[in-house]
Amino acid sequence: MPLRWDEFIVTGDPFILAAQISIALTSIIAVVALTYFKKWKMLWTDWITTVDHKKIGIMYIACALLMLFRGGVDAMMMRTQLAAPELDFLSSQHYNEIFTTHGTIMIIFMAMPFLIGLMNVVVPLQIGARDLAFPFLNNLSFWTFFFGMALFNISFVIGGSPSAGWTSYFPLASNDFSPGVGQNYYALGIQLSGIGTLATGINFIVTILRMRTKGMSLMKMPMFTWTVFITSLIIVLAFPVLTVALAMMTFDLLFGTHFFTLQGEGLDMLWANLFWIWGHPEVYIVALPAFGIFSEIISTFARKKLFGYNAMVASIVVISGLSFLVWVHHFFTMGNSAAVNSFFSITTMAISVPTGVKIFNWLFTLHKGKIRFTTPMLWSLGFIPNFVIGGVTGVMLAMAAADYQYHNTYFLVSHFHYVLIAATVFACFAGLIYWYPKMFGHRMNERIGKWVFWIFMIGFNVCFFPQYFLGLDGMPRRIYTYLEGDGWFSLNLISTLGAFMMAAAFALFVYNIYYSWRYEKRDTTGDPWDGRTLEWATSSAIPPHYNFAHQPEVVERDAFWDMKEKGIDLNASTDYQKIHMPNHTWLGPVMAFFMFAASFALVFSWWIPAILSGVAIFVCMIIRSFDYNDGYYVSVEEIEETERKAKEA
Ligand code: HEM
Ligand SMILES: [Cu+2]
């Protein structure tokens, strides 16, 4: 059936029109600027086709910051709508779309890529490796994520956004109740980026198992690397469930099957179960690396070894196992027997034990430490009490009988924001600031950074703390307005003010990126924080593409600290050997582009273009399998030259 153009381009809403105009303008400015400054070639060779884990990491983080902005704008619009009773800033349909895109974007396209970006930058350095085990795959993973993100995001200007919530429960998400292409975007956009995430998981498992430098046994790995390892295992076990569930959803939406619909043999609860069998482990995918980041930072700025390393490792292993056994706590009220609810109630509460162990480990690491209150440390210290608030209210929600009271209220909204923001977002900020000098050769300004921290921290509590009481007072989630007589006005207004404080802090953070680039002193040591782990041992502020001129050898945990104590200088010797490095690849971005084209065509049920793009993907795979090029050598002269420059600086 032919599509009318006004069904293709979204029209009629002033916000969306403004967004369309600003997207068009930004694109034009970008193209003109790239052409004017002759940067196209640089963009292609240095970034788009790169396999360097550090650059790929930076690209992930840049996208994540952009998505934090987009998801944040969504959040501000919702909070504006809810600031007072019976406002009509957003229509009910528009509100539904926005909470759906906000939730999906924040989890899939902000939290995960932000952490994956930090993992990319840091893990190979921490284990003394040259790159990830599969550099080509890493490039491909990034581009599938990128195009998945692009696909999901264009829904709001082309075709219309999904509006069935980030959980997309059936039957609401079926064609009967969600007409239009929005839901197709949801299924295909997440699918596409999920492929990248799955590949990233495999990549990190192999990297951490196979590429550690001499002497680094598993129990000598930095804690961040440990959490990335366990997270990758969770990814590999959980993401296939999402892949299958989304494929089934796609079949229901596009080909009229009845896996989840109410007709035929369809089971709507099957979707809810599959979604959360992935979805709860997903919570740990975005939480464990955050714990790793805090562990590194707290130990660095307390100038002490991490307290209870073994207990910490054990607790993340236990958490990862339990994370697969709790999914039903997301729908205690949706018709399970008392026995089932009790089981999942107990497993959920059990998770708080290893999590509590970790909190004590951090506190004991701080105990009698020589604490330096740098900005990364402030975020890490701020995390502890806020995360405890999120965790304790989680245990409250875990009581199945009590959950009948708070289910789907603002109590829940507040709980998961406390967990996701205090753990994941705080960790993303902390980690970015902490490793910023490794990526860009200078720190972020500390004075502005501290302002950002305090404004955000206070705004966060002003925004979300009142929501616990709104929830207890019965305000349901996902409502676009409420009545004056409900008595929810003042707390909602306070909450909205807090939200705008967070937005202001984010703006200041972005300004700090600019300010620091202009005015901050360049770091020449490569070790600006007096670090403990190997990423700080590279020869210059920004590590050269081969990372280490000499492979470090590890004797103790906190390997770099150990070297400093023993007076070993990794870069003293000038006796270099040539280094084997992987080649750039054009195939990664091109293959991912065809996946995007195929998915976009499927969104609109354009079968012929979809099939053609599918063929193109297949051709790319064939080209790849006949690609015998296995990299090149960095010459001794080039290493000498690079290392000499680093020393002179
Ligand atoms: C920056 C401050 C943020 C504010 C002010 C904010 C605000 C909101 C609001 C107003 C809702 C809709 C509540 C409803 O009507 O039910 C919501 C939902 C949600 N938020 Fe946030 N949010 C923020 C950050 C985040 C972050 C960082 C994440 C994840 C990492 C996140 C994940 C979610 C999810 C998953 C939902 C549920 C969406 C759904 O119901 O389908 N939010 N948020
Ligand atoms: Cu859960």
Strand percentage lies at: under 5%
Rounded mean pLDDT is 94
Radius of gyration: 25 Å
Percentage of helical residues? 55-70%
- Heteromolecules bound: protoporphyrin IX containing FE, copper (II) ion
- What count of helical segments does DSSP give? 21
- Subunit arrangement of the protein: single chain
What is the tally of beta strands?
2
pLDDT < 50 stretches = none
Between the first and last Cα atoms, what is the distance in angstroms? Answer: 65 Å
Lateral strand order in the biggest sheet? 1-2
Estimated structural class: mainly alpha
Which word captures the global form?
globular
Question: The biggest beta sheet, please?
Answer: 2 strands, antiparallel
| Topology order in helix (H) and strand (E) letters | HHHHHHHHHHHHHHHHHHEHHEH
Topology, element by element:
Elements: H1 5-8, H2 14-36, H3 40-48, H4 53-82, H5 92-126, H6 135-154, H7 182-210, H8 223-255, H9 268-285, H10 288-301, H11 309-322, H12 338-366, H13 375-398, H14 400-406, H15 410-440, H16 446-472, H17 489-519, H18 559-566, E1 579-581, H19 587-603, H20 607-625, E2 632-634, H21 636-648
Antiparallel strand pairs: 1-2
Helix pairs in contact: 4-5, 4-6, 4-17, 5-6, 5-7, 5-15, 6-7, 6-19, 7-8, 7-19, 8-9, 8-10, 8-11, 10-13, 10-15, 11-12, 12-13, 13-15, 13-16, 15-16, 16-17, 19-20
Bound molecules: protoporphyrin IX containing FE and copper (II) ion.
Main location: membrane
Protein name: Quinol oxidase subunit 1
Keywords: Cell membrane, Copper, Electron transport, Heme, Hydrogen ion transport, Ion transport, Iron, Membrane, Metal-binding, Oxidoreductase, Respiratory chain, Transmembrane, Transmembrane helix, Transport
